[in-house]
Amino acid sequence: MKNQKAKGKRQKAKIISVSFGLICLFVPLTQAQDNPQSAFRSDGRNPQSNSSQSDKRVGVDGAKRVPLALRDAILMALENNRDIEVERLNVQMTEFDVRASDGAYDPTFTSSFFYDRRRVPVANVLAGGEDGGLLTDNLTGNANLSQRLRQHGGLLQGTFSNDRATTQNLFNAINPQFTSSLNVSFTQPLMKNREIDPSRRQIKLAKKRLDISDSQFRQRAIEIIAQVQRAYWDLVFARRDREIKRESVDLARVQLEHNQRLVEAGSLAPADIISARVELERRNDEAEAAVDAIQRAENALKALMLQPDKTDLWNSELMPVEQPQVDSSVGLPLDDATRLALQNRPEMEQFRLRGELNKIDAEFFRDQTKPQIDFVISYGSIGVAGDPRTGTNFFTASSIATNDRINRLINYVNAQPNAPNPLIPVLPPPVDLPILGFLIGGNGQSLANMFKNDFRTWRIGVNINLPFGNRTAEANLGRSLAEGRQLDIQRQRTEQQIQVEVRNALQAVETAKRRVEAAKNSRVNAELQYQSEQRKFDAGQSTNFFVLDRQNALSAARGRELRALTDYTKAAAELQRTLSTTLSSNNVSVK
What we know:
Number of domains: 2
Number of helices: 14
Shape: rod-shaped
Distance between the termini: 97 Å
């Protein structure tokens, strides 16, 4: 038995010596095959793993660091975000649509002024022309003022006309002749277009669309704020995750240095240096990948809050000043949260406004199915004046010639010896009918005669327009009613979706809160476990493998705690968006 034990001891010693020789040969070969650029110094430190080089990022000047609070990021996004600016312009355009629709009730003034000269052939001596033609000159001015009434769709119109006419017509007693007229009319719909007409419909629709634009603007602002919150916390996570990975690198470097000292002291095998170096390089790789994550997270946040021409901020490094924390006040009972979401969500307000738009259309198209009966009344006054004509017409010339022949015959009879006694009296010369004095004058006299209101006209009656079938209006009414039913179904579907979102958001907050507590406990225990393993290693009771494994477990636990905190903060922001309390929770007012 003693011989066998001694033989076993000699074999073990032989195996150990051979293993030690192979390791001594393997270590130099491995070091010789390493890339010189990634080689470690004798102290175990990577010459290119310093923070100044590994932190370099494309388009970012590390010397320009901008501290950034979450509220500042939100305000900058609301001020500079292109999507917000588009929605703001949509609201402004809708406001102009309201003004344009209201312009249907602006007074309308139209006028015309023209000169007309014409010569027309005449084949009738009674037409009053000379040489087979009639020449007329007209100088006319017209003015019209109309005003639509908001109540019951009435239309009030006033028309003034002033004309100067010069003609060769021999039968006109005055030439030139000035004619002035003033007419006022009022048209009132009795059935169709009385309660609502196209103009009033457009005004109502434009006002409702303005309300919808305001709601969509608030909705877009809420979405942008939620995106900024997520991007901000993603950047916080990326930066802190990089720190955790750097701390893990530092732990691996310290472990490598520790192993080197133990190897130099002869209390540790040289193979443990190789394993420590491999682990150090792996952690360096993860740390470098974390820098790319920071770049992507920072660019995502900058894209939300900066304009393209803000070169200084684009080239600066954003430094979030806030850290994720658990807020015990976040959360509501499910029924209260659901009721609050249905009350506050812009989507529900938009459905209500779209329903009111549909009611306006239905009211209008139902009105269009009625017959159109309009009550019409008008009143006018006319004034005429001009210069008396000096020439004679056909009938006047004929009367003068006949009168002259008769008088010559009478004179002849009276000159005979047997002339009657007393003598036959001669006929007096023919005279034209006298022109009344108020008709003699120029354009001023014509206007004065018009305002005297001695010659007036008035009319009263109804206009009836009765289309047979009226299929267009009936089809439009049917379509609007079907659209109303469709809106109601869509509203119910959206209510269901909101309830699901509320449930999911509340559950996400509660789950994230429990995850934070569990991750915190895991991190604390991982720290204790690593410290214990390190002490055992220093006492020679553990190996390098277990120490590195405990370091990895600690780094993973810290990452899980950070992820849980970040997820909790993002879940709280999502709950604000779901309940539509984002603006009030962040003390933001959008206009």
